[in-house]
Amino acid sequence: MQSNSLKSRNSLPIISEPTPTSNGSNGAIADSEDSDPHRLKPDWSLITPHGRRLTEQKTEALRRVMEQHQGDRQLVILQDFPDPDALSCAWAYKLIAQQYDIRCDIVYAGTLSHQENIALVRLTGLPVQRWTLQTAKEKDLAVYNGCVFIDNQGTTTQLADLMKQHKIPVTVVIDHHSSQGDMKAEFDDIRSQTRATATILTQYLQAGLLRLDSSNGEHVKCATALMHGLRCDTNRLMQAQEEDFLAAAYLSRFYDSQLLNAILQSSRSKRVMDVIERSLRNRILQNNFSIAGVGYLRYDDRDAIPQAADFLVTEENVHTAVVYGIVHDEDEDLEIVIGSLRTNKLTLDPDEFIKEAFGQDPQGRFFGGGRSMAGGFEIPMGFLSGFNENSEYTRIKWEVFDAQIKQKLLRLVNPENGVIRTA
Ligand SMILES: [Mn+2]
Q1: 88 and 237 together in one domain
Q2: In this predicted model, what pLDDT tens digit does every residue of 376-417 receive, in sequence order?
Q3: What's the structural domain count of the chain?
Q4: Mind listing the pLDDT tens digit for each residue in 30-67?
Q5: Ligand 1 centre and the CA of 364: distance in Å?
Q6: Which residues surround ligand 1, an ion (CB under 5 A)?
Q7: pLDDT, tens digit, for every residue of 68-87?
Q8: Parallel, antiparallel, or unpaired for β 73-77 and 103-108?
Q9: Residues with Cβ < 8 Å from 328, sequence gap 6 or more?
Q10: Beta-sheet strand order (sheet of 334-343)
Q11: Where in the sequence is the domain holding 296, given as residue range(s)?
């Protein structure tokens, strides 16, 4: 057996620089002697040099924050319509925090509406709770020492304002959407160049914040969820970059491929199929953009909109699809215009496109934004909101919103009337 002790290495005649390990890997460096029980040996075998530098720095900072908050209770807040990236990352965060005796409750205020999200939560037993704004107001929020935003920065959840009102400090923000500006957190890691938050969380695992154990069922399910989240946000890895592939490779040591397959087998409901059909029928094509209004849909079917956009962008000569509709929330008798953008055009920045198209509300908040290749927007209908029995009125209302949204989008799409911003 080959010895890799220091002694045998020191006996080699020429070593210009002492290397920490003799097996050629750039494995554990400074962390190994530390006596901190939370400090696990990192596994840097699947990470880019840049990812490693950033991850070392960020995990060190996160570790310090978690140590300072031992014994705390935290509320992990997801966007109102959480996707697999958000759900899986919140779970990974919860498992990491558990080691510091921090108890996390993972919540979202909207709906789990994509069939795959429902399957993900059911099949993995993912510990997430739905807290509508009403439920949240009835809870004793004083038990929480801090809140955490994952895969969002508080701009896509109704719960953010409630946290502010109750003066619950923002302890952690981890996200890959473009910086939304004003949120101050004790720890933040916002990487707008990274395709999936799951890649960031996986890098934390590699850095030793949690040692995954393939004989631990919860770890296996969480790794499977992370793999699903990573695949979803990279268009099944087709838009993945090196760091995402490396993160997926790391997860492949722990995940359950049959479980992932079961999640992916979930099928679309008829109502979702109907929305996709409407988007196909209503789409207009201009300058390689496909734009479709789908009319009214139920709150629970909201996720049909991004699915329709995913579908429309697959058409020949289309590089960008925008689908929108009026979502009716029966519980609150509220209506809101919701839209999704999908693009294959590398030079089109969805975040900039949406901000440019729809501008800001009177409080200066944008109606939406995005990450690479995808974006979304939500426009409150204000005084015109609310269901009306009169079908003629309902039709006119849709037509007004439809025309207004098209007008805003076409301003950017038509070079004659304005320049397409593709910086
Ligand atoms: Mn994401």
Answers
A1: yes
A2: 999 989 888 887 788 899 999 999 999 999 999 999 998 665
A3: 2
A4: 444 455 666 788 999 899 988 899 999 999 999 999 99
A5: 24
A6: 85, 151, 197, 233
A7: 999 999 999 999 999 999 99
A8: parallel
A9: 296, 297, 298, 299, 334, 335, 387
A10: 284-286, 289-298, 320-329, 334-343, 374-380, 368-371
A11: 270-413
150 C-alpha to center of ligand 1: Å? 9
Please identify, among 213, 231, 264, the residue that sits at the C-terminal boundary of a domain.
Answer: 264
Q: Which two tokens stand for residue 185?
A: 């957190």
Collect all residues with Cβ–Cβ distance below 8 Å to 335 and sequence separation of at least 6.
Answer: 326, 327, 328, 329, 381, 384, 385, 386, 387
Q: Is residue 259 domain-shared with residue 368, that is, in the same domain?
A: no
Q: Are 193 and 172 in contact, with CB atoms under 8 Å apart?
A: no
pLDDT attached to residue 7: 37
Distance 12 CA to ligand 1 centre (A): 49
pLDDT averaged over the chain?
88
In a domain, 16, yes or no: no
- What spacing in Å lies between the alpha carbon of 23 and ligand 1's midpoint? 36
- CA of residue 89 to ligand 1 center, whole Å: 9
In angstroms, what is the span from residue 93 Cα to ligand 1's centroid?
A: 14
